[in-house]
Amino acid sequence: MRLVLVFLLAILLVNCDGPEPRRPVEVKSGSYYKESIERNKELLAVEEKLIQEIIQKDTANEYLSSPNGFWYYFETKNDTATYLPQTGDQVLFSYNLMTLDNDTIYTAEEIGTTSYVIDKQQLFPGIQNAIKLLKISEKASFLFPSPQAYGYQGDNNKIEPKTPLKSSVELHTIIIDNDSLN
C-alpha cells in the first residue's frame, strides 16, 4: 500500500511541471518573403524601364520626376496661380486611366468629376500625390508604376493587378481649408 502511494505521488509530481508550449509544425525561414520582395523589385525595375522608354520616345514633352516615384508633364500650365493643394483642402478634379500603350481603361466621363479632401480620403497613391503637384486649372499627364497605381490587387474591375497606368489629370477647383492658411 505504501509502495502504491509513493508511486502515485511520484506520478503526480512528474505531471505537475506546467503546460507544454505549442511548437510550430513547420518552421518558416522567411525565404517566401525574401523571394516576394525580390520579385516585386524586379517587376518595378521592368516597369520603370518601360516608362523610361516611353519618356525617351516622347520628345514633344518635358517630363518631370516626382519624389513619389512617378513621372509627369504638364499639358496645361497656369503661371498666374501660386497655391498648391494642402492637407485638408477639398479639390474637384477629373482624370482618365489608360494603359502605358494608350488603351483607355476608364474615360474622364466614366469616372466623372471627383471631389477629394487632400490626405483625408482614399484614392490610389499616385493620384493622391499627383493632385498635390497641380495648381487650379492645370492639366498634366502622369505615368504611374503599378505600386503607385492600384498595386498588387487591381481595382477588382477593369484594372488587373500589377498594372502600370497613364493618367491625364485636370484640377478644376481648390476649396482651401482654413488650417491650410496658417
UniProtKB/TrEMBL annotation:
Query: What is its EC class?
Result: isomerase
Could you tell me the EC number(s) of this protein?
5.2.1.8
Q: Kindly indicate whether the keyword Isomerase belongs to this entry.
A: yes
Name the chain's protein: Peptidyl-prolyl cis-trans isomerase
- GO molecular function annotations of the record: peptidyl-prolyl cis-trans isomerase activity
Entry annotated with the keyword Acetylation: no
Domain (PPIase FKBP-type): give its ranges: 88-175
Q: Could you tell me what reaction this enzyme catalyses?
A: [protein]-peptidylproline (omega=180) = [protein]-peptidylproline (omega=0)
- What InterPro entries would the database entry show? Motility-assoc_PPIase_GldI (IPR019869), PPIase_dom_sf (IPR046357), PPIase_FKBP_dom (IPR001179)
- State the family named in the UniProt similarity comment for this chain: Belongs to the FKBP-type PPIase family.
Keywords, sorted A to Z: Isomerase, Rotamase
